[in-house]
């Protein structure tokens, strides 16, 4: 199954970004990015997870932080250059596996109980995001956590807004919102699989 994306959201687009700049969105130092990671960790820190899946892990900054709350973290990105950086960043963590793969084919066969969708949904068309998010949600067990966090600004390489990403997730009949927060830059929703 192939999911179509805009040229600006293609694997080649992202690979070129990472080859030109090792951290093209300043994930390691930006106040917004570090604040987003803090919000994500605060939203999941009330418990530990057996197995987490993080698609679109980029250079692994959030992946490294997730490892402290999860027995295993399975992270993917479709940029080989980003994956090499993420693997180096997480090499000291024996509970992290970082692979070069794309959605939907890169979804692990394991039964993960935490799905982290961070800054990824708006790179898909509404139809593709609905299809991918439904596939992901339908593959996890009852009681699993879905954590979504997206920027609310506008960018030429986004197909849909951060709010649209979350509204599509919230429309899934097997998800119930457990926690929400929003500021002028970001929206975060923690959902439970029914």
Overall description:
This protein has 6 helices and 7 strands; from the N terminus they run H-H-E-H-E-H-E-E-H-E-H-E-E. Strands 3-2-1-4-5-7-6 form a 7-stranded mixed sheet, with helices on both faces. Mean pLDDT is 93; it is low at 1-7. The two termini are 26 Å apart. Helix 5 (126-138) links the parallel strand 4 and strand 5 (145-151). The chain is α/β, with parallel strands linked by helices and 194 residues long. It is globular. 32% of the residues lie in helices and 25% in strands. The chain has one domain (7-193): Rossmann fold, CATH 3.40.50. Helix 5 (126-138) packs across helix 6. It has helices spanning 11-20, 31-44, 61-66, 80-89, 126-138, 162-170, and strands at residues 49-55, 70-77, 96-100, 114-118, 145-151, 175-182, 186-193.
């Amino acid at each position: 199954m192939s999911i179509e994306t805009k040229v600006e959201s293609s694997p080649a687009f992202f690979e070129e970004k990472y080859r030109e700049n090792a951290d093209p969105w300043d994930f390691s130092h930006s106040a917004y990015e570090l604040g987003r990671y803090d919000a994500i960790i605060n939203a999941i820190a009330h418990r530990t997870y057996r197995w987490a899946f993080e698609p679109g892990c980029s250079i692994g900054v959030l992946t490294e932080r997730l490892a402290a709350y999860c027995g295993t973290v399975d992270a993917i990105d479709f940029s080989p250059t980003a994956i090499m950086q993420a693997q180096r960043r997480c090499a000291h963590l024996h509970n992290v596996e970082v692979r070069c793969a794309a959605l939907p084919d890169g979804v692990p066969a394991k039964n993960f109980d935490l799905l982290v969708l961070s800054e990824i949904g708006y790179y898909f068309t509404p139809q593709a995001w609905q299809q991918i998010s439904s596939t992901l949600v339908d593959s996890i067990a009852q009681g699993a956590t879905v954590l979504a966090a997206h920027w609310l600004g506008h960018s030429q390489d986004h197909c849909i807004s951060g709010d649209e990403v979350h509204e599509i997730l919230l429309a899934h009949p097997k998800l119930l919102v457990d926690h929400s927060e929003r500021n002028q830059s970001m929206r975060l929703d923690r959902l439970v699989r029914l």
